Amino acid sequence: MIPQNTPPEPPVPIDSDRWAFTDDGPWNVVLDELEWRPGVAGLRAEAERRLPAMINPSRRFPGRRVFTVAGHLGRAVVPWVLVKRRRGGAESRADLSLRLRKAAEKLGPTYIKLGQIISSGEGIFPAELVAEFAKCRDQVPAERFSTVREVVEADLGAPLESVFATFARVPIAAASIAQVHKATLIDGTRVVVKVQRPTVDLLVHQDLRTMAWLAPIFVGRIPVAALANPPALVEVFAHTISEELDFRIEADNMLDVARVFSELGQHQFVVPRPHPTLVTRRVLVMECLDGFKFDDLDSYELHGLDTHAIVRASMIGFMEGALIHGIFHGDLHGGNLFTRPDGRTVLLDFGITGRMSEKRRLAFVRLLISGMMNDSLGQLAAIRDLGALPDDTDIEAVARDLGMFDEVVDPTTMSPEQLVNELQRVVKALLGYGARMPKELMLFVKNMVFLDGAIARLAPDLDLLAEIGHIAEYFATRHGAELAAQVGMDPDDYEFDERGIKAAFGIDDTVETMTYRQLQERRELIRRRLRTGS
Question: How far apart, in whole angstroms, are the C-alpha atoms of residue 348 and residue 56?
């Protein structure tokens, strides 16, 4: 019995009030009780500090690994140079992409991871390269269970059986950095355990040094590399993969993304809870959540879920986290999210998380506002401030060179030769100005590409013009005054320009609606003309 002069203990806050978790979790997340969290800020800083030494081009020979890498790449590229390069066009690029994909698989986890990132970059990298590297997503052999046991026991400091009542020997997923097993704790709680491959940390750092040493050699030498800009790609990849190598950072990313969604009142997404004590550099134990594949249309129909509403909420939630808080999940793809029967989307794998500085977040805000207002110079200035162009870039000169002041031409009315010439002109102009793809911009665009594909699968008859207008109205109504103040703009000056949005699609101002299905038909026509010349 509690003495009458002793006040009762205050109730422990429910963690789902603070984070985007399920309402009935197997444990309650309390920040002060997370044993792995106090040193995470230092771990982030150390990961950032180590990067320059690994990616800056050096005259110093990076070691024997370079012979292995050069050998595989040489055996891939040289036959292409001697035989297929002269043919040019999509067939030549497809052949080279196939050779590079096979070389990446032989080189191991680091290069497979690079391939996986490239495979999510439709619209950023050449289509042939993206299609070929998509085959890397599920072709990574799993580690033997004895190796998994060694890693888990070493990091948790206890025999496997003293922590887990059951531990599946066969993983439910095996990726380049880690693999995932289902398990139950001693108390019967169902969990998921992510286990890092034992040698991947050392191999990644060796490979980054090798990539940085080799990348300048390939600049301008092959079409795929000319578009991808190898040194810049290595830099982005290094920033992307560095934090993936410590699961304590990933667990903290889970909390940050979940907090952002909760503060925004975005209930569409749910994040698994990381365990309060069972998180180390190479082991991450988290809540086990059930659901079905994000693109499983039959399951949506079975549960009576509105796919249009889910796609809309997903787009707004992703954009809102990035624009308002500067934090977002950086690797959306079909294997990293699934849908619960209640319609909420579960996000997984937070190793790649976008974190923008305040300067870059505000640049994103200006990019959104300028896009909705059809302000070409404003969009270019925002892209420059995101780090995609040098700080001293003449924005008006870039706009003129890109033809942004010219009358809009519907690309479906252009001949194959005109399309190719226009693409080459734009790419050449951007490279001439020193254009590059900073990490945050690449992750953001890559995620938008995924959401683009989600619309194609789940809501092909969605009216894109109306949807863009809906999103613009949402941000203007909910965040307009705040965002305008942040970028020094009078809210009354904001005016959504529907004509500009139509121009961005290359369609006439008289067009009233455009479904995603119609947009796909236009894209396919353009691809066919580029591919076959007809």
Answer: 32
**DSSP string computed for 500-518:** HHHHHHT--TT----BHHH
- With a cut of 60, say whether residue 507 has pLDDT above it: yes
For residue 509, what are its two tokens? 């101002």
CA 191 → CA 149, 164, 274, 275, 510, distances in Å?
Answer: 16, 9, 10, 9, 55
Half-sphere exposure of 379 (CA within 13 A, CB side): 14
Full DSSP string of 233-302: HHHHHHHHHHGGG-HHHHHHHHHHHHHHHHHTT--SEE-PPEEEEEE-SSEEEEE----EETT-HHHHHH
CA distance 489 to 479: 13
Q: Is the pLDDT of residue 427 over 80?
A: no
Q: How sure is the predictor about 226, in pLDDT bands with cuts at 50, 70 and 90?
A: very low
Q: What is the bridge-based pairing of β-strands 337-339 and 345-347?
A: antiparallel
Angle at 206 between CA 204 and CA 212, to 5 degrees: 95
CB 180 within 8 A of CB 193: yes
* Rounded-to-integer distance, Cα 379 and Cα 138, Å: 37
Give CA torsion, residues 314, 445, 519, 511, to 10 deg: 90
Q: Tell how strand 337-339 and strand 292-293 pair up.
A: antiparallel
Instruction: Name the strand (E) or helix (H) holding 528.
Output: helix 516-532
> Closest Cα partner for 443 from 137, 166, 243, 236?
236
Would you state the structure tokens that stand for residue 162, as one six-digit string? 């003293």
Q: How many residues does the chain have?
A: 534
Tell me 321's DSSP state.
Answer: I
What distance in Å separates the CA atoms of residue 222 and residue 225, rounded to the nearest whole number?
5
3 pLDDT above the threshold of 70:
no
Rounded to whole angstroms, the Cα distance separating 164 from 149 reads 11
pLDDT digits (tens, 9 = 90+) for 183-222: 999 999 999 999 999 988 888 888 888 888 877 776 655 5
DSSP 362: H
Q: What is the pTM of this model?
A: 0.85
DSSP per residue, 2-65? --TTSPPPPPPPPGGGTSS--SS-SS---GGG-TT-TTHHHHHHHHHHHHHHHHS--SS---TH
